[in-house]
Amino acid sequence: MEQNKVKGKVYIAGAGCGDEQLITLKLKNILEKADCVIYDRLVNPNILQYSKSGAELIYMGKENTEGGELQLKINQTIVKKAFENEIVLRLKGGDPFVFGRGGEEIEALLAENIGFEVIPGITSSIAVPAYAGIPVTHRGINTSFHVFTGHTKIDGSEHDFSTIAKLDGTLIFLMGLGNLEKIVENLVENGKKVNTPVAIIKDGTTSKQKTYTGTLETIVEIVKENNVKSPVIIIIGEVVNLREKMQWFEKKVLSGKNILVTRNKEKQKRVADKINELGGQAVSLPLINIEYNEFEMPDLSQYGAILFNSANSVIGFMNKIKDMRQLANVKIGVVGTKTAEEMENYKIIPDFYPKEYTVERLAAESLKFTNPNEKVLFVVSNISPVDTEKYDKLYGRKYEKVVVYSTEQVKIEEEKVEREVRKSDILMFLSSSTFESFVKNLGIDDSNKTEKLKNILDRKVIASIGPVTTKTIEKYGIKVNIEAEKYTEDGLLDAIEKYYKD
Question: Exactly one of 9, 62, 375, 452 is catalytic; which is it?
Fold first, then answer.
Protein backbone atom coordinates (compact mmCIF):
# COMPACT_ATOMS: atom_id res chain seq x y z
CA MET A 1 0.00 0.00 0.00
CA GLU A 2 1.29 3.46 -0.88
CA GLN A 3 1.39 5.28 2.41
CA ASN A 4 2.15 8.63 0.77
CA LYS A 5 -1.33 8.83 -0.75
CA VAL A 6 -3.91 11.08 0.88
CA LYS A 7 -6.40 8.88 2.71
CA GLY A 8 -10.06 9.30 1.91
CA LYS A 9 -13.04 9.19 4.19
CA VAL A 10 -15.16 6.07 4.58
CA TYR A 11 -18.89 6.06 5.30
CA ILE A 12 -20.18 2.86 6.90
CA ALA A 13 -23.86 2.98 5.95
CA GLY A 14 -27.05 0.98 6.27
CA ALA A 15 -29.19 0.78 3.13
CA GLY A 16 -32.34 -0.30 4.93
CA CYS A 17 -34.04 -3.48 3.81
CA GLY A 18 -35.73 -4.40 0.56
CA ASP A 19 -37.80 -1.34 -0.29
CA GLU A 20 -35.41 1.11 -1.96
CA GLN A 21 -37.35 4.07 -0.54
CA LEU A 22 -36.30 3.11 2.98
CA ILE A 23 -32.87 4.70 2.57
CA THR A 24 -32.10 7.89 4.46
CA LEU A 25 -31.62 11.32 2.90
CA LYS A 26 -28.06 11.38 4.23
CA LEU A 27 -27.25 8.10 2.50
CA LYS A 28 -28.65 9.40 -0.79
CA ASN A 29 -26.48 12.50 -0.51
CA ILE A 30 -23.33 10.44 0.09
CA LEU A 31 -24.20 8.02 -2.72
CA GLU A 32 -24.27 10.99 -5.09
CA LYS A 33 -20.75 11.98 -4.01
CA ALA A 34 -18.95 8.67 -3.41
CA ASP A 35 -16.07 7.71 -5.69
CA CYS A 36 -16.33 4.04 -4.71
CA VAL A 37 -19.28 2.02 -3.38
CA ILE A 38 -18.70 -1.41 -1.80
CA TYR A 39 -22.07 -3.10 -1.36
CA ASP A 40 -23.63 -6.28 0.07
CA ARG A 41 -25.91 -9.03 -1.21
CA LEU A 42 -29.01 -7.70 0.57
CA VAL A 43 -28.71 -4.15 -0.83
CA ASN A 44 -31.49 -3.44 -3.34
CA PRO A 45 -29.60 -2.80 -6.61
CA ASN A 46 -32.04 0.00 -7.48
CA ILE A 47 -30.41 2.07 -4.72
CA LEU A 48 -27.23 2.20 -6.80
CA GLN A 49 -29.02 4.41 -9.33
CA TYR A 50 -28.21 7.34 -7.03
CA SER A 51 -24.46 6.77 -7.36
CA LYS A 52 -22.61 9.37 -9.37
CA SER A 53 -21.53 8.75 -12.93
CA GLY A 54 -18.17 7.00 -13.06
CA ALA A 55 -18.27 5.75 -9.46
CA GLU A 56 -16.60 2.38 -8.93
CA LEU A 57 -19.19 -0.18 -7.80
CA ILE A 58 -17.80 -3.25 -6.03
CA TYR A 59 -20.08 -6.15 -5.11
CA MET A 60 -18.93 -8.04 -2.03
CA GLY A 61 -22.02 -9.98 -1.05
CA LYS A 62 -21.73 -12.95 1.22
CA GLU A 63 -23.81 -16.01 1.92
CA ASN A 64 -24.27 -17.19 5.49
CA THR A 65 -21.39 -19.68 5.18
CA GLU A 66 -18.78 -17.21 4.01
CA GLY A 67 -18.67 -14.79 6.95
CA GLY A 68 -15.14 -14.86 8.40
CA GLU A 69 -12.91 -15.21 5.36
CA LEU A 70 -14.90 -12.88 3.14
CA GLN A 71 -15.24 -10.31 5.93
CA LEU A 72 -11.45 -10.07 6.06
CA LYS A 73 -11.39 -9.43 2.29
CA ILE A 74 -14.08 -6.77 2.69
CA ASN A 75 -12.07 -5.02 5.42
CA GLN A 76 -8.96 -5.08 3.24
CA THR A 77 -10.87 -3.75 0.23
CA ILE A 78 -12.37 -0.87 2.20
CA VAL A 79 -8.93 0.16 3.49
CA LYS A 80 -7.35 -0.16 0.03
CA LYS A 81 -10.05 1.94 -1.63
CA ALA A 82 -9.77 4.58 1.09
CA PHE A 83 -6.17 5.17 -0.02
CA GLU A 84 -7.29 5.49 -3.64
CA ASN A 85 -10.40 7.66 -3.34
CA GLU A 86 -11.63 10.75 -1.57
CA ILE A 87 -15.02 9.28 -0.54
CA VAL A 88 -15.67 5.56 -0.07
CA LEU A 89 -19.12 4.22 0.81
CA ARG A 90 -19.46 0.84 2.47
CA LEU A 91 -23.11 -0.02 1.86
CA LYS A 92 -24.69 -2.73 4.01
CA GLY A 93 -28.21 -4.14 4.22
CA GLY A 94 -30.33 -3.00 7.16
CA ASP A 95 -28.31 -1.19 9.82
CA PRO A 96 -24.51 -1.65 9.97
CA PHE A 97 -24.52 -2.24 13.74
CA VAL A 98 -27.42 -4.74 13.92
CA PHE A 99 -25.54 -7.98 13.25
CA GLY A 100 -23.96 -6.16 10.32
CA ARG A 101 -20.32 -6.37 11.45
CA GLY A 102 -19.93 -2.64 10.89
CA GLY A 103 -17.87 -2.40 14.05
CA GLU A 104 -15.28 -4.82 12.66
CA GLU A 105 -14.93 -2.71 9.52
CA ILE A 106 -14.45 0.41 11.62
CA GLU A 107 -11.71 -1.34 13.63
CA ALA A 108 -9.89 -2.03 10.33
CA LEU A 109 -10.12 1.69 9.47
CA LEU A 110 -8.90 2.74 12.92
CA ALA A 111 -5.85 0.50 12.52
CA GLU A 112 -4.89 2.55 9.45
CA ASN A 113 -5.93 5.88 10.97
CA ILE A 114 -8.59 6.38 8.28
CA GLY A 115 -11.45 8.77 8.99
CA PHE A 116 -15.00 7.46 8.98
CA GLU A 117 -18.64 8.23 9.69
CA VAL A 118 -21.58 5.91 10.34
CA ILE A 119 -24.93 6.36 8.58
CA PRO A 120 -27.58 4.31 10.42
CA GLY A 121 -30.07 2.30 8.37
CA ILE A 122 -33.58 1.05 9.01
CA THR A 123 -33.10 -2.41 10.46
CA SER A 124 -35.12 -5.34 9.17
CA SER A 125 -35.94 -6.30 12.75
CA ILE A 126 -38.41 -3.38 12.89
CA ALA A 127 -39.20 -2.58 9.24
CA VAL A 128 -40.08 -6.10 8.08
CA PRO A 129 -42.65 -6.78 10.84
CA ALA A 130 -44.13 -3.32 10.18
CA TYR A 131 -44.59 -4.16 6.47
CA ALA A 132 -46.28 -7.40 7.54
CA GLY A 133 -48.72 -5.52 9.79
CA ILE A 134 -47.00 -6.60 13.01
CA PRO A 135 -45.96 -3.83 15.44
CA VAL A 136 -43.01 -5.01 17.52
CA THR A 137 -44.60 -3.34 20.57
CA HIS A 138 -48.25 -2.62 21.28
CA ARG A 139 -49.90 -1.09 24.30
CA GLY A 140 -51.60 -3.70 26.45
CA ILE A 141 -49.66 -6.57 24.87
CA ASN A 142 -45.97 -5.95 25.54
CA THR A 143 -43.51 -3.30 26.63
CA SER A 144 -40.31 -4.55 24.99
CA PHE A 145 -38.86 -6.34 22.01
CA HIS A 146 -35.63 -8.33 21.79
CA VAL A 147 -33.50 -8.93 18.71
CA PHE A 148 -31.29 -12.02 18.38
CA THR A 149 -29.13 -13.51 15.70
CA GLY A 150 -30.57 -16.75 14.44
CA HIS A 151 -27.12 -18.29 14.08
CA THR A 152 -27.15 -20.53 17.13
CA LYS A 153 -24.76 -23.38 17.92
CA ILE A 154 -25.89 -26.97 17.45
CA ASP A 155 -26.81 -27.34 21.12
CA GLY A 156 -28.36 -23.90 21.33
CA SER A 157 -25.81 -22.76 23.90
CA GLU A 158 -24.99 -19.54 22.04
CA HIS A 159 -28.18 -18.09 23.52
CA ASP A 160 -29.41 -18.40 27.08
CA PHE A 161 -32.82 -19.81 26.17
CA SER A 162 -33.71 -20.31 29.83
CA THR A 163 -33.72 -16.52 30.14
CA ILE A 164 -35.10 -15.75 26.66
CA ALA A 165 -38.13 -18.02 27.14
CA LYS A 166 -39.17 -16.05 30.21
CA LEU A 167 -39.21 -12.70 28.38
CA ASP A 168 -42.68 -11.19 27.88
CA GLY A 169 -41.59 -8.99 24.99
CA THR A 170 -41.56 -9.77 21.28
CA LEU A 171 -38.72 -12.08 20.23
CA ILE A 172 -37.13 -11.35 16.86
CA PHE A 173 -34.60 -13.69 15.27
CA LEU A 174 -32.65 -12.54 12.22
CA MET A 175 -31.10 -14.99 9.73
CA GLY A 176 -32.54 -17.90 11.68
CA LEU A 177 -34.45 -20.05 9.20
CA GLY A 178 -31.82 -22.82 9.20
CA ASN A 179 -32.06 -23.00 12.98
CA LEU A 180 -35.83 -22.53 13.29
CA GLU A 181 -36.43 -26.01 14.66
CA LYS A 182 -33.65 -25.61 17.24
CA ILE A 183 -34.96 -22.16 18.30
CA VAL A 184 -38.51 -23.50 18.72
CA GLU A 185 -37.37 -26.57 20.66
CA ASN A 186 -35.22 -24.53 23.06
CA LEU A 187 -37.99 -22.00 23.74
CA VAL A 188 -40.59 -24.70 24.43
CA GLU A 189 -38.21 -26.76 26.56
CA ASN A 190 -37.54 -23.68 28.67
CA GLY A 191 -41.16 -22.86 29.31
CA LYS A 192 -42.52 -20.88 26.35
CA LYS A 193 -46.12 -21.90 25.65
CA VAL A 194 -46.58 -23.99 22.52
CA ASN A 195 -49.53 -21.83 21.42
CA THR A 196 -47.35 -18.66 21.33
CA PRO A 197 -47.96 -16.98 17.92
CA VAL A 198 -45.11 -17.00 15.37
CA ALA A 199 -44.67 -15.24 12.03
CA ILE A 200 -42.07 -16.05 9.39
CA ILE A 201 -41.67 -13.16 6.96
CA LYS A 202 -39.83 -13.92 3.73
CA ASP A 203 -38.30 -11.22 1.47
CA GLY A 204 -39.60 -8.50 3.76
CA THR A 205 -40.46 -5.04 2.35
CA THR A 206 -39.98 -6.27 -1.24
CA SER A 207 -42.66 -7.02 -3.83
CA LYS A 208 -42.13 -10.73 -3.10
CA GLN A 209 -42.85 -10.39 0.62
CA LYS A 210 -44.74 -13.39 1.98
CA THR A 211 -45.83 -13.97 5.58
CA TYR A 212 -46.52 -17.36 7.17
CA THR A 213 -48.15 -17.47 10.60
CA GLY A 214 -48.58 -20.27 13.13
CA THR A 215 -47.53 -21.12 16.66
CA LEU A 216 -44.43 -22.60 18.24
CA GLU A 217 -46.18 -25.94 17.88
CA THR A 218 -47.00 -25.63 14.16
CA ILE A 219 -44.57 -23.20 12.54
CA VAL A 220 -41.80 -25.67 11.67
CA GLU A 221 -44.22 -27.86 9.72
CA ILE A 222 -45.75 -24.81 8.01
CA VAL A 223 -42.30 -23.71 6.82
CA LYS A 224 -41.55 -27.20 5.48
CA GLU A 225 -44.91 -27.50 3.71
CA ASN A 226 -44.39 -24.15 1.95
CA ASN A 227 -40.71 -24.79 1.18
CA VAL A 228 -39.79 -21.38 2.62
CA LYS A 229 -36.28 -20.15 1.77
CA SER A 230 -34.07 -17.42 3.24
CA PRO A 231 -33.94 -14.53 3.82
CA VAL A 232 -36.59 -14.46 6.55
CA ILE A 233 -37.35 -12.72 9.83
CA ILE A 234 -38.81 -14.77 12.71
CA ILE A 235 -41.26 -12.95 15.02
CA ILE A 236 -42.49 -14.65 18.21
CA GLY A 237 -45.09 -13.12 20.50
CA GLU A 238 -48.71 -12.05 20.91
CA VAL A 239 -48.24 -9.03 18.62
CA VAL A 240 -48.28 -11.47 15.67
CA ASN A 241 -52.07 -11.76 16.14
CA LEU A 242 -52.43 -8.07 15.22
CA ARG A 243 -51.45 -8.88 11.62
CA GLU A 244 -54.98 -10.11 10.85
CA LYS A 245 -56.32 -6.55 11.07
CA MET A 246 -53.18 -4.47 10.51
CA GLN A 247 -51.64 -6.03 7.39
CA TRP A 248 -51.40 -3.52 4.53
CA PHE A 249 -48.38 -4.03 2.29
CA GLU A 250 -49.28 -7.45 0.89
CA LYS A 251 -52.75 -6.11 -0.01
CA LYS A 252 -51.34 -3.62 -2.55
CA VAL A 253 -52.45 -4.25 -6.12
CA LEU A 254 -48.97 -5.07 -7.48
CA SER A 255 -47.79 -7.00 -4.44
CA GLY A 256 -45.75 -9.96 -5.62
CA LYS A 257 -45.00 -8.39 -9.01
CA ASN A 258 -41.60 -7.43 -10.40
CA ILE A 259 -41.85 -5.12 -13.40
CA LEU A 260 -39.08 -4.78 -15.98
CA VAL A 261 -38.62 -1.09 -16.82
CA THR A 262 -36.85 -0.70 -20.15
CA ARG A 263 -36.85 3.04 -20.74
CA ASN A 264 -33.79 5.32 -20.65
CA LYS A 265 -31.91 5.62 -17.36
CA GLU A 266 -32.81 9.29 -16.76
CA LYS A 267 -36.52 8.45 -16.70
CA GLN A 268 -36.31 5.25 -14.63
CA LYS A 269 -36.76 6.73 -11.16
CA ARG A 270 -40.21 8.21 -11.70
CA VAL A 271 -41.55 4.91 -13.07
CA ALA A 272 -39.90 2.95 -10.26
CA ASP A 273 -41.45 5.21 -7.61
CA LYS A 274 -44.94 4.70 -9.04
CA ILE A 275 -44.48 0.92 -9.20
CA ASN A 276 -43.20 0.99 -5.62
CA GLU A 277 -46.31 2.89 -4.47
CA LEU A 278 -48.47 0.12 -5.93
CA GLY A 279 -46.53 -2.55 -4.02
CA GLY A 280 -44.43 -3.80 -6.93
CA GLN A 281 -40.69 -3.75 -7.59
CA ALA A 282 -39.08 -2.12 -10.60
CA VAL A 283 -36.34 -4.13 -12.31
CA SER A 284 -34.18 -1.61 -14.13
CA LEU A 285 -32.95 -2.48 -17.62
CA PRO A 286 -32.45 0.70 -19.70
CA LEU A 287 -32.50 -0.39 -23.34
CA ILE A 288 -32.27 3.00 -24.99
CA ASN A 289 -30.22 6.13 -24.42
CA ILE A 290 -31.24 9.70 -25.23
CA GLU A 291 -28.64 12.11 -26.63
CA TYR A 292 -29.48 15.74 -27.45
CA ASN A 293 -28.11 16.85 -30.82
CA GLU A 294 -26.34 19.92 -32.03
CA PHE A 295 -28.55 21.47 -34.72
CA GLU A 296 -29.06 24.76 -36.49
CA MET A 297 -32.13 26.58 -35.24
CA PRO A 298 -34.32 27.56 -38.22
CA ASP A 299 -35.90 31.00 -38.59
CA LEU A 300 -39.01 30.45 -36.47
CA SER A 301 -40.82 33.47 -37.89
CA GLN A 302 -41.38 31.44 -41.08
CA TYR A 303 -43.70 28.93 -39.40
CA GLY A 304 -47.38 29.07 -38.51
CA ALA A 305 -47.02 26.22 -36.04
CA ILE A 306 -44.36 24.13 -34.31
CA LEU A 307 -45.22 20.55 -33.39
CA PHE A 308 -43.43 18.57 -30.66
CA ASN A 309 -43.64 14.76 -30.70
CA SER A 310 -42.29 14.07 -27.18
CA ALA A 311 -41.11 15.63 -23.93
CA ASN A 312 -37.52 15.05 -25.08
CA SER A 313 -38.16 17.06 -28.23
CA VAL A 314 -39.29 19.96 -26.03
CA ILE A 315 -36.14 19.74 -23.88
CA GLY A 316 -33.79 19.51 -26.85
CA PHE A 317 -35.44 22.43 -28.64
CA MET A 318 -35.88 24.73 -25.65
CA ASN A 319 -32.29 24.25 -24.53
CA LYS A 320 -31.19 25.64 -27.89
CA ILE A 321 -33.56 28.56 -28.29
CA LYS A 322 -32.03 31.89 -27.27
CA ASP A 323 -35.08 34.14 -27.06
CA MET A 324 -38.55 32.85 -26.18
CA ARG A 325 -40.10 35.88 -27.90
CA GLN A 326 -39.39 34.08 -31.18
CA LEU A 327 -42.39 31.91 -30.36
CA ALA A 328 -44.77 34.82 -29.72
CA ASN A 329 -46.79 34.47 -32.93
CA VAL A 330 -46.38 30.74 -33.48
CA LYS A 331 -48.99 28.13 -32.56
CA ILE A 332 -47.62 25.30 -30.41
CA GLY A 333 -48.86 21.72 -30.81
CA VAL A 334 -47.77 18.75 -28.70
CA VAL A 335 -48.44 15.02 -28.98
CA GLY A 336 -49.82 14.42 -25.48
CA THR A 337 -50.17 15.44 -21.86
CA LYS A 338 -46.59 14.64 -20.82
CA THR A 339 -45.23 16.70 -23.70
CA ALA A 340 -47.63 19.49 -22.70
CA GLU A 341 -46.40 19.35 -19.09
CA GLU A 342 -42.80 19.61 -20.25
CA MET A 343 -43.68 22.63 -22.40
CA GLU A 344 -45.39 24.26 -19.43
CA ASN A 345 -42.10 24.00 -17.53
CA TYR A 346 -40.92 26.72 -19.91
CA LYS A 347 -43.98 28.88 -19.13
CA ILE A 348 -45.62 28.08 -22.47
CA ILE A 349 -49.11 26.59 -22.64
CA PRO A 350 -49.58 24.57 -25.85
CA ASP A 351 -52.37 25.62 -28.17
CA PHE A 352 -53.43 22.10 -28.99
CA TYR A 353 -52.83 18.37 -28.79
CA PRO A 354 -54.87 15.57 -30.34
CA LYS A 355 -56.93 13.06 -28.37
CA GLU A 356 -54.97 10.28 -30.05
CA TYR A 357 -51.30 10.64 -29.14
CA THR A 358 -49.68 10.10 -32.56
CA VAL A 359 -47.70 12.36 -34.90
CA GLU A 360 -50.19 11.62 -37.69
CA ARG A 361 -53.04 13.05 -35.63
CA LEU A 362 -50.86 15.95 -34.51
CA ALA A 363 -50.25 16.86 -38.16
CA ALA A 364 -54.00 16.67 -38.85
CA GLU A 365 -54.83 18.79 -35.79
CA SER A 366 -52.49 21.56 -37.02
CA LEU A 367 -54.97 22.33 -39.84
CA LYS A 368 -57.25 24.05 -37.34
CA PHE A 369 -54.50 26.49 -36.35
CA THR A 370 -52.74 27.23 -39.65
CA ASN A 371 -53.55 28.44 -43.16
CA PRO A 372 -53.18 26.60 -46.50
CA ASN A 373 -49.58 26.43 -47.75
CA GLU A 374 -48.30 27.77 -44.42
CA LYS A 375 -45.10 26.18 -43.10
CA VAL A 376 -45.31 23.82 -40.10
CA LEU A 377 -42.23 22.61 -38.21
CA PHE A 378 -42.01 19.20 -36.55
CA VAL A 379 -39.47 18.90 -33.69
CA VAL A 380 -38.53 15.23 -33.52
CA SER A 381 -35.99 12.47 -32.82
CA ASN A 382 -33.85 10.57 -35.30
CA ILE A 383 -36.31 7.66 -35.32
CA SER A 384 -39.55 9.63 -35.45
CA PRO A 385 -42.14 8.32 -37.96
CA VAL A 386 -42.90 11.84 -39.22
CA ASP A 387 -43.44 11.76 -43.03
CA THR A 388 -43.41 15.38 -44.19
CA GLU A 389 -44.08 14.61 -47.87
CA LYS A 390 -47.12 12.55 -46.99
CA TYR A 391 -48.50 15.28 -44.72
CA ASP A 392 -47.91 17.92 -47.42
CA LYS A 393 -50.15 16.02 -49.82
CA LEU A 394 -52.78 15.12 -47.23
CA TYR A 395 -53.18 18.47 -45.49
CA GLY A 396 -52.07 21.19 -47.92
CA ARG A 397 -49.35 22.60 -45.70
CA LYS A 398 -45.55 22.68 -46.03
CA TYR A 399 -44.23 20.40 -43.31
CA GLU A 400 -40.59 20.41 -42.29
CA LYS A 401 -38.73 18.74 -39.44
CA VAL A 402 -35.73 19.38 -37.24
CA VAL A 403 -34.06 16.47 -35.39
CA VAL A 404 -33.13 17.66 -31.89
CA TYR A 405 -32.32 14.38 -30.17
CA SER A 406 -31.27 10.83 -30.95
CA THR A 407 -32.54 7.58 -29.49
CA GLU A 408 -29.75 5.02 -29.44
CA GLN A 409 -30.00 1.37 -28.51
CA VAL A 410 -27.99 0.32 -25.45
CA LYS A 411 -25.83 -2.79 -25.78
CA ILE A 412 -26.34 -5.23 -22.88
CA GLU A 413 -24.99 -8.74 -22.43
CA GLU A 414 -27.53 -11.36 -23.49
CA GLU A 415 -27.07 -13.25 -20.21
CA LYS A 416 -27.94 -10.15 -18.18
CA VAL A 417 -31.09 -9.46 -20.23
CA GLU A 418 -32.27 -13.04 -19.73
CA ARG A 419 -31.49 -12.87 -16.01
CA GLU A 420 -33.52 -9.67 -15.56
CA VAL A 421 -36.42 -11.13 -17.55
CA ARG A 422 -36.42 -14.26 -15.37
CA LYS A 423 -36.85 -12.24 -12.20
CA SER A 424 -39.67 -10.13 -13.75
CA ASP A 425 -43.39 -10.86 -13.93
CA ILE A 426 -44.38 -7.91 -16.16
CA LEU A 427 -42.35 -6.36 -19.00
CA MET A 428 -43.12 -2.69 -19.76
CA PHE A 429 -42.35 -1.34 -23.23
CA LEU A 430 -42.81 2.41 -23.65
CA SER A 431 -41.77 2.58 -27.31
CA SER A 432 -41.09 0.43 -30.35
CA SER A 433 -37.39 1.29 -30.07
CA THR A 434 -37.11 -0.24 -26.58
CA PHE A 435 -38.63 -3.51 -27.76
CA GLU A 436 -36.40 -3.63 -30.83
CA SER A 437 -33.37 -3.02 -28.60
CA PHE A 438 -34.63 -5.78 -26.29
CA VAL A 439 -34.83 -8.24 -29.17
CA LYS A 440 -31.43 -7.25 -30.54
CA ASN A 441 -29.74 -7.70 -27.14
CA LEU A 442 -31.17 -11.21 -26.96
CA GLY A 443 -29.42 -12.07 -30.22
CA ILE A 444 -32.72 -12.64 -31.98
CA ASP A 445 -33.10 -12.21 -35.74
CA ASP A 446 -35.71 -13.11 -38.34
CA SER A 447 -34.54 -16.73 -38.52
CA ASN A 448 -35.03 -17.55 -34.86
CA LYS A 449 -37.25 -14.81 -33.51
CA THR A 450 -40.49 -16.70 -32.86
CA GLU A 451 -39.34 -19.79 -31.01
CA LYS A 452 -36.53 -18.24 -28.94
CA LEU A 453 -38.45 -15.12 -27.99
CA LYS A 454 -41.56 -17.08 -27.04
CA ASN A 455 -39.48 -19.32 -24.79
CA ILE A 456 -37.87 -16.35 -23.02
CA LEU A 457 -41.20 -14.58 -22.56
CA ASP A 458 -43.16 -17.64 -21.53
CA ARG A 459 -45.65 -16.77 -18.76
CA LYS A 460 -44.59 -13.12 -18.75
CA VAL A 461 -47.16 -10.32 -18.94
CA ILE A 462 -46.32 -7.93 -21.80
CA ALA A 463 -47.43 -4.30 -21.37
CA SER A 464 -47.35 -1.82 -24.27
CA ILE A 465 -47.75 1.95 -24.20
CA GLY A 466 -49.93 2.03 -27.31
CA PRO A 467 -50.90 0.67 -30.74
CA VAL A 468 -47.62 1.54 -32.49
CA THR A 469 -45.53 -0.29 -29.90
CA THR A 470 -48.04 -3.15 -29.82
CA LYS A 471 -47.73 -3.57 -33.59
CA THR A 472 -43.94 -3.81 -33.27
CA ILE A 473 -44.19 -6.44 -30.52
CA GLU A 474 -46.79 -8.50 -32.39
CA LYS A 475 -44.56 -8.51 -35.48
CA TYR A 476 -42.37 -10.92 -33.51
CA GLY A 477 -45.28 -13.23 -32.75
CA ILE A 478 -45.63 -12.06 -29.14
CA LYS A 479 -49.03 -11.42 -27.58
CA VAL A 480 -49.52 -8.09 -25.80
CA ASN A 481 -51.51 -8.59 -22.61
CA ILE A 482 -51.91 -4.95 -21.57
CA GLU A 483 -52.15 -1.85 -23.75
CA ALA A 484 -52.57 1.66 -22.38
CA GLU A 485 -55.76 3.51 -23.28
CA LYS A 486 -53.89 6.75 -22.78
CA TYR A 487 -50.51 6.50 -24.54
CA THR A 488 -48.32 7.76 -21.73
CA GLU A 489 -46.16 6.27 -19.00
CA ASP A 490 -48.89 7.01 -16.43
CA GLY A 491 -51.51 5.61 -18.79
CA LEU A 492 -49.63 2.32 -19.02
CA LEU A 493 -49.19 2.10 -15.25
CA ASP A 494 -52.93 2.76 -14.87
CA ALA A 495 -53.64 -0.05 -17.34
CA ILE A 496 -51.37 -2.44 -15.41
CA GLU A 497 -53.09 -1.51 -12.15
CA LYS A 498 -56.53 -2.08 -13.72
CA TYR A 499 -55.42 -5.43 -15.18
CA TYR A 500 -54.55 -6.78 -11.74
CA LYS A 501 -57.51 -5.20 -9.96
CA ASP A 502 -59.90 -6.83 -12.39
Answer: 62
